[in-house]
Design a protein that fits this description.
This is Intraflagellar transport protein 172 homolog. It is built from no helices and 12 strands. The chain is mainly β.
Length: about 170
């Protein structure tokens, strides 16, 4: 296999603008990138930016600087649904939001599922079949079922979950 550099999809920044998460859609037509500004940018298969949407905190009304607030969370992971029409966003403020991004570019981005959790999300994966799998800072691996908005613990340990793979 030979790899070929094509181009940068995001311009170089003068400040620290860390890329928090990147995900390819299963149909290979969409790339989602989220930087430290908490905005998910969507690119087509050629690297052209087609859409973007801001993420939301778990509760924007609570302004506790140590726990939650409008800018007090970090995106920890992105995962596309098997049909590439939804994207799960795992956040450090103990929640996973599922946004409907649609099949075509420019469709309205709406939250269709919310999964409040007991701990901060560390990683996320969405297999081709089954629920969203979420790794947490408290050592639990949870399954988030989009059909009934419920989650269950699959595995528990005493150390945080570093990564997940499908």
């Amino acid at each position: 296999m030979q790899l070929k550099y094509l181009r940068n999809i995001l311009p170089t920044q003068e400040s620290l603008d860390k890329i928090c998460a990147i995900a390819w859609s299963p149909n290979n037509l969409k790339l989602a990138v989220c930087a430290s500004d908490r905005v998910v940018q969507l690119f087509d298969e050629f690297g052209e930016r087609k859409d973007k949407f801001p993420t939301k905190p778990v509760d924007a009304k609570v302004v506790n600087l140590f726990l939650f607030g409008k800018k007090s969370y970090v995106i920890r992971g992105l995962a596309f649904s098997p049909d590439s029409t939804k994207i799960a966003v795992g956040q450090s403020d103990n929640i996973v939001f599922v946004y409907k991004v649609g099949e075509e570019w420019g469709e309205k981005k709406v939250i269709c599922n919310k999964f409040p959790l007991q701990s901060s999300v560390t990683c996320i994966a969405w297999p081709l079949e089954g629920p969203i799998i979420v790794g947490l800072a408290d050592g639990k691996v949870r399954a988030a079922h989009t059909r009934n908005n419920r989650s269950q613990t699959l595995y528990s340990t005493d150390s945080l979950v570093i990564s997940l793979a499908v």
